[in-house]
Amino acid sequence: MRYFKTTIALLLALTLMFALVACGTTSPTPGESDNTNDISSESPPQTPDSTTEPEETTEPEGATEPDESSSNMLVVYFSWSGNTETIAGEIQTQTGADIFELVPATPYSTDYNTVLDEAQAEQRDNARPEITGSIENIEDYDTIFVGFPNWWGDMPMILYTFFDTYDLSGKTIAPFVSSGGSGFSNTRAAMQELEPDATFLDGLSLSSSASASPADRVASWLSDIGISAD
How far apart are the C-alpha atoms of 228 and 206, rounded to whole Å? Predict the structure, then answer.
């Protein structure tokens, strides 16, 4: 009987040991992680205007040239993910303004993490990325809408190229920005320093989510700054 009890006890001990080992080696559910490498958990001054990679599109020939019209208004913008482009298109639709996209001669990466590094490197170097195309008749415009994403608390450096290239003295500038929540940061002061003889109107700041359907916000903004819809 004593031998039998000893055998039972040994079997129970072995069973308990195997159960504990099995629990300690259970794999996590697929898709779970501690997010230690998730960029959304970081808090940089301000990252590019969307965590979504931009869609690859083919620009039609001449797309960087302003449309020829009798408008005295021009929309100038740079967009990486498409958020700022959507706002720019809505402003053009509601005002009838001409439009000019700031397209870098050397394209940015379409990878989000890579473009973060590129943007920071340009800021450190105070770079002036070359713009594809040009605005030949800048003197014809009285009001210029200028739009961009907030990158690391600043304008993308291609905006500095634009302001260095064109003298906007005497013109009215209406800025707009898309961001993850930081708005204009210090970019309005930077623009006013670059174009001290221009008149600046109140700007429009939209979050990445609001940029998807900006019609109502754009209409309200245009009304507030005294620009009539087309």
Answer: 20
Query: Phi, psi (5° rounding) for residue 13?
Result: -65, -40
Residue with tokens 């000019």: 100
DSSP 70-132: S-SEEEEE--SSSHHHHHHHHHHHHH--EEEE-EESSPPPSSHHHHHHHHHHHHHHT--PPEE
Q: Taking the model in full, what pTM does it have?
A: 0.74
- How big is the chain by its Cα radius of gyration, in Å? 27
**Residue 39, CB-side half-sphere exposure with 13 Å CA sphere:** 15
Q: Within the chain, what is the greatest distance between any pair of CA atoms?
A: 108
Q: What is the predicted pLDDT for the residue at 46? A: 54
pLDDT at 35: 27
**Residue 137, helix vs strand vs coil:** coil
Residue ranges, the chain, pLDDT below 50: 1-8, 10, 12-45, 51-64, 67
What is the three-class DSSP state of 61? coil
**If you count DSSP H runs as helices and E runs as strands, how many of each does the chain have, helices first?**
6, 8
Distance CA 129, CA 161 (A): 6
Query: Distances from the Cα of 8 to the Cαs of 16, 17, 18, 22, in angstroms?
Result: 12, 14, 16, 21
What SS3 class is residue 59?
coil
Residue partners of 200: CB distance under 8 A and separation at least 6: 172, 173, 174, 175, 188, 191, 192
